[in-house]
């Protein structure tokens, strides 16, 4: 299922066996209260739902790795579902494994490109925890000694959100051309083929 098609569906979690959520099962009994599947109107405005193959560095069947539009450090990337979902609790065990595996694969790639084996990983669940975009995403941030005054300063940067745009804080924002160029370079380093979709 294409990302645009899936993002416009209010029942996307029930479109296939691998993405079906069984509301009556004990583990997901309250999933409808935990997760609000956004309306098609919201999904059209969601900045992550608008991401298409030219922005994908790595991808699995249901998830994609993209470069952060406003990186707090070089290599700062995000792992996102290809359909509109807000909460980690809405993922099946299989989807959760796929989500984390893609995050690990992306960290390995970033480690090779940025020559490091140190990373910060973050998932912010709900606004009270600092989630700035109501679409599940995991931050993967390559780290090096001395890259920030204190090792824990990266999280404060994530918390300084004053806008609803994709992680747009008081920090540098990449242009569209820069974002696509960095994506293409990382994809090339991964040995991934260029996407067939036309760049916007």
Automatic annotation (TrEMBL):
Give the matching PROSITE patterns. Answer: HIT_1, HIT_2
Quote the Pfam families the UniProt record gives. Answer: HIT (PF01230)
Gene3D superfamilies assigned to the protein according to its UniProt record, in alphabetical order? HIT-like
Q: Where is this motif: Histidine triad motif?
A: 135-139
Record InterPro entries: Bis(5'-adenosyl)-TPase_reg, Histidine_triad_CS, Histidine_triad_HIT, HIT-like, HIT-like_sf
| Top-level taxon | Bacteria
The positions flagged as active site in the entry are 137 (tele-amp-histidine intermediate)
Q: Recorded GO terms, molecular function?
A: catalytic activity
Query: Start and end of every HIT domain?
Result: 44-150
Identify this protein by name: HIT domain-containing protein
